[in-house]
Amino acid sequence: MTQPTILATDLEGVLVPEIWIAVAERAGIERLRLTTRDIPDYDELMRGRLALLREHRLTLADIQRVIGAIDPLPGAVEALARLRERVQVIILSDTYYEFAMPLMAKLGWPTLFCHSLEVDEQGMISNYRLRLPDSKTAAVRALRELRFRVLAVGDSYNDVGMLAAADAGALFEPPQNIVADFPHFPVLRGYNDLLAFVEQETQR
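User: That's the sequence. What structure does it adopt?
Assistant: C-alpha cells below.
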C-alpha cells in the first residue's frame, strides 16, 4: 500500500506576500520589513515588531486592514488547487490566526497551523502566544509518527527545522543568504518547480 503523503508548506513567501513587509510599506516603518529571512531568532524578531507597533500606536485593526488588501502571490491559488489534487496540504506558519483568516479565504480555506495574539483593551497587540516552540518542526515530526510521508517547503530560517525533519524538504524562492547557509536543500524557482518536486517525491 502506498504511504499517504502530506505537503507541509510555509505561508508567507510561498503562497502570499510577507505580511509584515506590507504593513511596513503602508505605515512607512522601515524596520518592520525585517522577517525570519533576516533574523533567525523568532522571539527577538517579534519583540522588536511589538515595540515598533507600540511606538507608532498601530492597533490590530490597523494591521488587519492592511492584510485585507493583500492578495495571494500570482499563480498561488491555481498551484495550491493542483497540489491538493495530488497530496494533502497543510500550511505551517509562524503568523497568527488574527492575521491570516482573510488570506485563507482567498486561498480557498486550506488547513492552517499557526499561533495566536494577545490584544489589550485599546486594541494594541500586547503579546504573542506560540502553540509550542518550533511548532513547524514538531508538526512535521508528529505527522511522520502518524505514518504519513511528509514533504516540506519554505523560504526562511524558521523553516529549516521542518525541512530537515521531513522525508524531503526544499527551499522555495529563498534569498541568497538562506541558500548559502543551507546548500544541501534543493531550491525551487516557482510553482512549476514545486509541482514537479511533489510529483517526483510522490513517485518514490
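Residues 4 and 148 are 5 Å apart (CA to CA).
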